[in-house]
Amino acid sequence: MRWTKTYIPTLREDPADAVIDSHKLLLRAGLVRQLTAGVYTYLPLMQKVLQKIVEIVREEMDASGAIEVTMPVLHPAEIWQKSGRWEVLGKEQMRMKDRHNRDLVLGATHEEAITTMVRGELKSYRQVPMNMYQIQVKFRDEIRPRFGLMRGREFIMKDAYTFDVDEAGLKVAYNKMAEAYYKIFTRCGFKIKMVESDVGAMGGTGAHEFMVLVDTAGGEEVILACERCDYAANIERATSLVMSDEPSKESKKEKALVHTPNMKTVEEVTSFLKVGPERLIKTLLYQSDGETVAALIRGDRDINEIKLKNHLRCLELEMSPPDIVMKVTGALVGYAGPIGLSGVRIIADPEVKSMVNFVVGANKDDTHIINVNINDFTIDEVTEIRKAEAGEICPRCNQGRLSAYSGIEVGNIFMLGTKYSKALDAMYVDAEGNEKPFVMGSYGIGITRTAQAAIEAFHDKKGIIWPKTIAPYDFHIIPINIEDEEQKRISFDLYEKLKELGFSVLIDDRNERPGVKFNDADLVGIPVRISVGERGLKEGAVEIVIRRTMEVEKAPVEKAASRATEIWENL
Predict the structure, then answer these.
(1) Total domain count for the chain?
(2) I need a surface site. Which of 121, 185, 278, 487 has the fewest CB within 10 A?
(3) Mean pLDDT of 378-389
(4) How far is the C-alpha of 26 from the C-alpha of 452, rounded, in Å?
(5) Residue pair 204/241 in contact by the 8 Å Cβ criterion
(6) What is the CA radius of gyration of the chain?
(7) Tens digit of pLDDT for each residue in 450-471?
(8) Which residues, including other chains, have CB under 8 Å from residue 155's CB and lie 6 or more apart?
(9) 327 and 417 belong to one structural domain
(10) 509: Cβ–Cβ under 8 A, 6 or more apart, which residues?
(11) pTM
(12) Which residues pair with 555 in a beta bridge?
């Protein structure tokens, strides 16, 4: 493809609204343009990348025995209401009404749609196992779209769904999909890690995410993994054993009120009282589907709201606003405590039970209580609600320490069980003539997220470094001076030879300064670049550059095509 015959609107400067490197490079390399918040047009270079990712996904899904279908994007609200997710997802769904005032949904995922499709069609145990997938545009009304394609409101996704007669069959399907995912992401050039994750609104009995490990700020999730065993989980799901759960042998002291003027944060209070943050208990008030609950956690810990939400089994969980805090505690935000807190469900992290002589809010402005002990108030429930941290002990092997990694989620798999088949009456008849619900699995890959994850994982200060399997082109030819007839002739001869060999080639036939061409070449990141210029041709050679390493090799003009091919094949 000639540069002048395609559309690659590169930018010299970083866009002001882009934060992470991959988002900046998406825009600077002319890959996408934003239409509105979280909605992008995929320009020619990105279109080629997406096509290559789709091709890899399709090949591996087909090889795994999955069957491709295409389901509607537009869904009737009724199927989501039957599954219970109409209420669960709420504002995250793109909803609308038709001219008859009927509620409709733009699908973010298709569990309801495919279960409705097979209901009455798959009737016998002899018709399963069955695995069907599609590659399609999805919609989600993100509250705050950000980071380019990472958190968009419109995106491309591969979603697959399996139907089995029992849990044993589901495990086989689940493992087969996990194996296919490893193959897909390895072919895309990634170092991938499969980690335990929360089932969230999807429901079911278990889930895993496939994470691309990155060393940049673009890693949207923290992964904790054991140094000794194969335990790995995202921060929402991760658990750990604390360094020591031995009860303190410290003698209990008499509690007392202490004036703490305008001191609301853990740092302010503990600094004033000259104690460590681990000697304070935070009392955090939440609204759980409208009910006020109190969560108790050590002052040096962060609360895991996903764990708390799962424990409460609520649809919505949010911090209590100041007016409710005042109504419940009689004090401003920052002074809540468990002593005397009435009419509120109190949930405590297990670490709280082993604490002695700790500090809590007094439910009174500018006041805390010191030397509080566990028998000074009532706890309704004890469950782990803190975020696990690097350095803590692995909950699986009980020996290894957890290490933290930064990752980008590109795929997920869920053991759905019978959640959707029961709700939508998708039943089969077993060998004994009994009617039973199908046991289902769900498996997603973010196609557009995978493309951006590749940019985040593979780039340098100059631009993108595409893995060759998903690069928009294999070779990038640059005639340094397109008006020089010899440079032009040799460049186009190479262009035709490489195309005849089955490679995709971009030739920069613009009448631009060499610096502009080279900067754009580094920016768009094609794996192998061939430069044809006056200096090299005096020696009868062209320059071949490997984008990943920026290694330069001179090759005779007559051998340039074959040598460039050898270099590309050995990348």
Answers:
(1) 3
(2) 121
(3) 94
(4) 8
(5) no
(6) 29
(7) 999 999 999 999 999 999 999 9
(8) 137, 138, 140, 149, 446, 447, 448, 449
(9) no
(10) 2, 3, 4, 479, 482, 491
(11) 0.90
(12) 542
